[in-house]
Amino acid sequence: MKLDSKIPEGPLAQKWTNHKNHLKLVAPNNRPKIDIIVVGTGLAGASAAASLGEMGYNVKAFCFQDSPRRAHSIAAQGGVNAAKNYQNDGDSVYRLFYDTIKGGDYRAREANVHRLAEVSGNIIDQCVAQGVPFAREYGGMLDNRSFGGTQVQRTFYAAGQTGQQLLLGAYSALSRQIGLGRVKMYNRHEMLDIVKIDGKARGIIARDLITGEIQRHSAHAVIIATGGYGNVYFLSTNAMGSNVTAGWKIHKQGALFANPCYVQIHPTCIPVHGTNQSKLTLMSESLRNSGRIWVPKKKEDAEAIRAGKLKPTQIAEEDRDYYLERRYPAFGNLVPRDVASRAAKERCDAGYGIEANDTNEGVYLDFSTEIQNKGKQAAYAKGNHNPSAEEITALGKQWLEEKYGNLFTMYQKITDENPYETPMKIYPAVHYTMGGVWVDYNLQSTIPGCFVAGEANFSDHGANRLGASALMQGLADGYFVLPYTVSNYLADEIRTGKIPTDSPEFLEAEARVKDTITKFLNNNGTKSVDYFHKKLGLIMWNKVGMGRNEAQLKEAITEIAQLKEDFYNDVYVPGSADEFNTELEKVLRVADFIELGQLMAMDALQRKESCGGHFREEYQDAEGETLRDDENFKFVGAWEYKGDDISKEELHKEELKYEEIKIAARNYK
């Protein structure tokens, strides 16, 4: 199989404009004759469904939640990037493009990333028009803050709930189309397979999660927008229901799966506190604007803190190691996520961790300096040029509360510690996945008519995503890319007519789904689904996590293959198929996670370099920084399914070409 990325010819800055100008169109009077299925209603799916409905297509939208408002996009806290340069600090489309390529460790497509930067400003305009309440500065202009991996302020935000506000904007647009009858919404439905006819995507098999009914749905094109696969690790910042099933099912029907080993470990999560925990909580990266990350300089101080004999506020300033500021003075606490995460791991591995949990892993995110700085500024602005220490502290805390109040409240409710008084405890955790279904420049997979958007595809972030770029990509794909590229594909479908669901292909796909469900329900095993999911998570975190090496990756591949065999022999699923059955939902998802976990380890094993979120311990310099191998690994690794034995998957390579950016070692020092 030869991969054709369909990147347009011509100068980089003109590729998207020229490409759009030459795409085929569907006339307004023909659009009502065409059906489109959108699976997933987060930012990418909701914006795509709303946009295509507005254009006049018949859209069916599916989500497994009880409402699109519950999609995991709602959990994004810190902001969305756009190159508007409101802060007049040197930002531009090129700068956003450059920062994204560099942040992804030169493992992303130039053309896709430049398009993303080009349309970023349109996203803000669209969302403002929808009523998204972005934060504003004193003069009424939209405010911006910084995120990791940049030296400008380009992140638009709505307190610490940006994802929720953006999703409500997309949901309002989607709801309008539902009200007009152009979008039919299927809540509490999960896609369990894709249907291909003559090689083209022609529909899906879905399960009504309330009644258990297996349904056939046909369409002229299918869009997958179901998010990432972080829950393969069991513990992650993802919602408990987040899964890879839709992406994995299309992979098994011919869609290549690209760069599965690229996983983002987010540096600012609340540390694990117990073995029965099933979810981790993210503290927004925006907090790194105001917080300073440190551990004690002396091991005995770290030991005393873990033993409860010392409080962090008792550690003198000269006895604190602000290790990011020490190692990366140019970016300080705003280095990219992969860099910050590895630095935290290095300090904790060396014995300086501060959390009294099983692993002693944890570092501090301290706001005391910001409280003093902002308190003095606020006092001065009020005309008080000689404020007392108490006044400074009170005004500084008030400033923090206005900026991050909901995040601080969330932290206090979870940990029972007041972050205004005591530094937050944080540690890296699995967050976002840069890998996903391979797509070309038009966001079409290797299955004609099957498009993939947002985190479900691999395309725009390379080996590491910059903070606030997930929301940007999801909305860019849904609002500003798919309406053009899907229409280009559908221009040849206006004479196809309604696609019947009683064809042999639909019957075969439905039988495949029912057979799998029946086997699990009749398995008579002895272990719960979570038992196997936790075992998979431990293998993945310990051997395919922040640090990877050849020996452990080979062990992981073998262990996951054995786990898969044990899972199919001994998993127990209670209840029946014709009812609301959450264990049945879980077992189908975990079956896919197990297979994907093995592929992730295989992908990490073949990539003999360190880049972004993929850190091979054998490939690092004397200071512990990543060592890329641009000569041998400057490619997208896209895997082709070859049957039930995942070890037989075949790797295809899409070479990455850089015309506008000179590849260099990443340097944030």
Descriptive account of the structure:
With 669 residues, this protein is α+β, with helices and mostly antiparallel strands. Among the domains are: 269-429, no CATH class; 504-630, Methane Monooxygenase Hydroxylase, Chain G, domain 1, CATH 1.20.58.100. The protein is 38% helix and 14% strand. It has 17 helices and 19 strands. The chain has helices at residues 15-22, 43-55, 93-103, 110-130, 162-179, 245-252, 299-306, 323-327, 337-349, 368-381, 389-415, 469-490, 504-521, 529-543, 550-570, 582-606, 630-633, and strands at 35-39, 58-62, 80-81, 155-156, 183-186, 189-197, 200-208, 214-218, 221-224, 257-258, 263-269, 292-296, 320-321, 363-366, 424-433, 436-437, 450-452, 635-640, 650-655. It has a five-stranded parallel beta sheet with strand order 5-2-1-9-17. Strands 11-15-14-12-13 form a five-stranded antiparallel beta sheet. The chain has a four-stranded antiparallel beta sheet with strand order 16-10-18-19. Helix 2 (43-55) runs parallel beside helix 5 (162-179), helix 2 (43-55) packs parallel to helix 12 and helix 14 runs antiparallel to helix 15. The protein is globular.
